[in-house]
Amino acid sequence: MFNIINSLRVIEGSSFVAAPSAGLYLSQMGAEVIRFDQIGGGPDFSRWPLSKTGTSFYWEGLNKGKKSLAINLCDPEGREIAKSLICSDGDEAGIFLTNYPTSGFLSHEKLSAERSDLITIRVMGKADGGIALDYTVNSAIGLPMITGPDKLGDEPVNHVLPAWDLLTGSYAAFALLAAERSRRETSLGREICIPLMDMATATMSNLGMIAEVIQEGQDRPRYGNDVFGFLGRDFVTADKKRAIIMALTPHHWTGLVKALNIKEGVNKIEHSNGVTFDRDEGLRFIHRREINELIQAAVSKRQSAELFAAFEENKVCWGPYNTLTEASNDATLVRDNPMFADISHKSGQTYPTAGSPATLPAEERGTPVRAPYLGEHTDEILMDVLKLSSGEVGRLHDKKVVAGKENSTSGS
C-alpha cells in the first residue's frame, strides 16, 4: 500500500476480474475504493478457489483494501443509494468503475444527469454490448491455435491465466486516472468504455501479430515450448531439474555460451550455416534445433545447483520451473519478498498476501489491507459519505434496503 492518490474516491460496482483488479490497483496506490454489492454477494462472491470454510480466496484477493457497502439493488431505494454514492459531491469524488451494462439505472447518461462531471470507466465484453469473457475472447483471437506442442494438429490449447481480464483491468485504472486528470483541467466528465475484445485485438496488433499473418497469408505455426523469434525453451539438468533458458540480447547469448562452455560447438554450427549468432536473435531462432541440441547436451551433464550458479555468475537469462506450491514457498518470490505480508483474512486463514507490485524507493511500503467483510462499512459510508442520520440508517436496515457485516452474508 502506498498513499500517493489518497484524496481520490472511487465507487466500484463490479464482479469477476477486470474491473475489480482495476479497483485493487487504485486502492494499492492509496485511493479510497468503495464497492457496493447486492446483499448476500454478487455473482463472483463465492467463486473458486475456496477456503475450507467456503470463503472465496479469489474474492478476498481482488478486493483487498476496499470498503464494502451491501445494498438491495432490486429495491428502488437501494438503487437510489447507489446512484447517490456514485454522484456524491467533492472534487475527488464522482468516479464510477464498473462492468455493469451500459443501459439501466447505472448508465452514464442517467448518472451524469445527477452529476454532470461524472467519470464512468466501464469494462465490457464487446464494444456492441455483447457478452464476452476472457476465455471466449482468447479463443476468438486465435491464440489457442498457436499454443501447445508443435505436432498437436488442430486441437486448441487454452491457458489458465486470464490475461485479457488483467490487461483490461490495468488499462481501466490508467484510463480512470487519465480521465480524472482531464477533469481537473477542463471540469468535464466522460464515460470510457473498455471492451475485453478490443483490448485483446489491440494487443495482438501492437505486438505485430495481425500484421504478420496478413503479410504471410497464413497462421503462425505452433512452436511448442520454443519462444517465437529468439532462442528460448526448457532444458533438463543431470539431476532432472528443468529450467527455461533464453537468449534475447547479445549479452544473454555470450553469457550462456560461456556458462555452458559451448563456444566450439557454436562455431561449428555458425560455420556450417554461414551465419553469426552474436548479434541476431532471429538467426538463433531459425537455427534453434541445432543450438537446442547443443545446449541440452551441455545442460544434461551438469548438476542443477552448480549449473544455475554458473548462470548467475555469467548473467544468463534463465528461470526454474516451479510448481505453484514451490513458488508459493520460495523465499525470493514470496517469503522474503517485501511486497508480501502475513495477513489474517475474513476466510479465517492467515497467509502471505501481496501488496502493490510497484516499488517506490522514496516511499515507505504499507502493509496490505485485507478484503472487507460484505457490508462491513455500510453504516460508515451511509453516514460519512451520504450524510444520513443514524435514525435513517436504522430505518434502511429495518427495511432490508441495506445490510451490515453481521447480516449481509451467512458464511463470510
What does this protein look like?
- It is elongated, with a radius of gyration of 26 Å.
- The protein has 2 domains: 9-204 and 338-403, Rossmann fold (3-Layer(aba) Sandwich); 237-322.
- The chain has 412 residues and is α/β, with parallel strands linked by helices.
- The protein is built from 17 helices and 12 strands.
- The longest helix is centred in the middle third of the chain and has 24 residues, at 163-186.
- Helix 4 links the parallel strand 4 (95-98) and strand 5.
- The model has no long low-confidence stretch (mean pLDDT 96).
Query: Secondary-structure element order, as H and E?
Result: EHEHEHEHEHHEHHEEHHHHHEHHEEHHE
Counting DSSP H or I runs of 4 or more residues, the number of helices is 17
Strand order of the largest sheet: 6-5-4-1-2-3-12
- Mean pLDDT over the residues: 96
User: In terms of per-residue confidence, which ranges show pLDDT below 50 for 5 or more consecutive residues?
Assistant: none
Strand tally is 12
CATH fold name of the largest domain: Rossmann fold
List keywords for this structure.
7-stranded mixed beta sheet; 17 helices; alpha/beta; 15% strand; Rossmann fold; 3-stranded antiparallel beta sheet; 412 residues
How do the strands and helices of this protein lay out in sequence?
Layout: E1 9-13, H1 18-28, E2 32-38, H2 57-62, E3 67-71, H3 76-86, E4 95-98, H4 108-112, E5 119-124, H5 134-141, H6 163-186, E6 190-195, H7 196-206, H8 209-216, E7 231-236, E8 242-247, H9 250-260, H10 263-273, H11 281-286, H12 288-299, H13 304-313, E9 317-320, H14 324-328, H15 331-335, E10 340-344, E11 350-354, H16 378-384, H17 390-398, E12 402-403
Parallel strand pairs: 1-2, 1-4, 2-3, 4-5, 5-6
Antiparallel strand pairs: 3-12, 7-8, 8-9, 10-11
Helix pairs in contact: 1-6, 5-7, 6-7, 9-13
